[in-house]
Amino acid sequence: MRAFQLSAATLFLLAHILLVVPFVPLASVLPAGLGALSMSSMALSLILAARWRVVDRLMGGPDKSYVAHRWLGFFAVGGALGHWALASSFGAGVLPVLAESGEEVGTMAALGLVILTAAAMVRAIPYHLWKASHMLMGPVFLLASYHTFFVASPLAVAAAPWTLMAVVSIVGLAAWIQTLLRKRSPTQRVTVSRVTRFEGGVDVTLASDAPLPPFRAGQFATLARTHARAEAHPFTIAGGDAWSRRFVIRAAGDWTEELVRDVAKGDALRLGRGVGRFLPRVDADRPEQLWVAGGVGITPFLAALDRMEPDDGAKITLLFCIRSRGSAGGLVDVERHAARLPQVHLTLLGDLEGKRLTPGGLGEIARTMAPEAEAYLCGPEGLKTLVTTAWAAAGRAGKVHGERFDFRGAYGLTDLIYIGQPYLDAAWTWAAPKRKDGHAPVGP
């Protein structure tokens, strides 16, 4: 996956460079291409942020949209900085009277993009402040659009790159306006009917006076307080029916810490519809599956177990990785379902008991499964990396399904290191012979 992502990123970059080659002088190819890269990346980020259903569906789910949003954010910043450092005025511009202001506005846009990106990387900033600052990406995009079309540029009006940037800017602007003007996503008022706290989290069931929209096991929904402009946070649905929803929530931030600490029976919340495409197979004609859950990552599988009836279909191997029994929300129900479902084989791996998931142990399990077996993962990124690596090493051809629930923001310092490290490694390898020659002894 890493090689694929890096290849796609490189092709995305080269496509913008090649786009401008026939239309600008050679000296302007790189700055013009980087400027186009930044503009299209910002526009696509706004389109993904608008959460159009057709876009989420094409991306393979909202979590995939968020990952692409993150990558595009880095491209936007990198392209803007490269363009800012290399570009120079060329010609008179579309409207000469606005050419100078176009250059000044471009500088403002680049600075704003860098500042907002830096703010998004600081996870210590409270969610509501981050969200407010991130909404300023729209005005920054407007400034960048003004710069693109009114600065003195080597791109001729109506040339292919100019036209493409115009279309991209219009669509990006429409997405941002739609995000600002749209009403809150449809929600229903629900009441907390049951609260069970566990170490570091809470298991809560919500009841509704009216029928709730149907959901599929593995999907998530948003929860929010009932006051105006309340923040909505996504959580995987752990179960429920037409009149209720269950969530197992771990304290992982200021909002969830408050919820875990204060939620009580009778409290009112706003519940969103079920969305997402992480859907473990529960029908009788399913393929053999490996389910791996870490902590509250058990929630999609708990909902799936709740929907299942005993059958003689393909085996499901469920590995539940926990710190301890006291910190494992929903554990009693997981064990109850495993006892009633002969097709489910449950293994508990607890850190405090010294039972941990290892590459060797996972490889042994994978090699006993059918070549076309599929894997479903929900948990920390380290767990996902371990499973995907062991799955590939065992030669399993079935797909590995997973979701990345990083809804906090579009950026992360680890992502920046992840993207840049292969290029740094390549540069270091390229320079190795020169370093060696530079330190070679001189003389006979």
Structure description:
The chain starts with a helix and ends in a 6-residue tail after the last helix. By secondary structure, it is α/β, with parallel strands linked by helices. The strands form two sheets. It has a seven-stranded antiparallel sheet with strand order 4-3-7-1-2-6-5. Strands 10-9-8-11-12 form a five-stranded parallel sheet, with helices on both faces. α4 crosses α5 and α5 packs antiparallel against α7. It folds into three domains: 2-181, no CATH class; 187-272, Translation factors (Elongation Factor Tu (Ef-tu), domain 3, Beta Barrel), CATH 2.40.30; 289-402, Rossmann fold. It has helices spanning 2-20, 29-49, 53-59, 62-86, 96-121, 127-134, 137-150, 160-181, 254-262, 299-307, 331-340, 359-367, 381-393, 413-438; strands at residues 187-198, 201-207, 220-224, 232-236, 239-241, 244-250, 268-272, 289-294, 316-322, 344-350, 374-378, 400-402. 49% of the residues lie in helices and 16% in strands. It contains 14 helices and twelve strands. The chain crosses the membrane at residues 29-50, 71-99, 105-124, 136-156, 162-181. This is Ferric reductase. It is found in: Membrane. Its cofactor is FAD.
Task: Give me the count of strands.
Answer: 12
Helix-strand topology string: HHHHHHHHEEEEEEHEEHEHEHEHEH
Q: How many strands, which pairing sense, and closed or not: the largest β-sheet? A: 7 strands, antiparallel
Strand order of the largest sheet: 4-3-7-1-2-6-5
Radius of gyration: 26 Å
Distance between the termini: 50 Å
- Uncertain segments are 409-419, 438-444
How many domains, as an integer? 3
- Give average pLDDT, whole number: 82
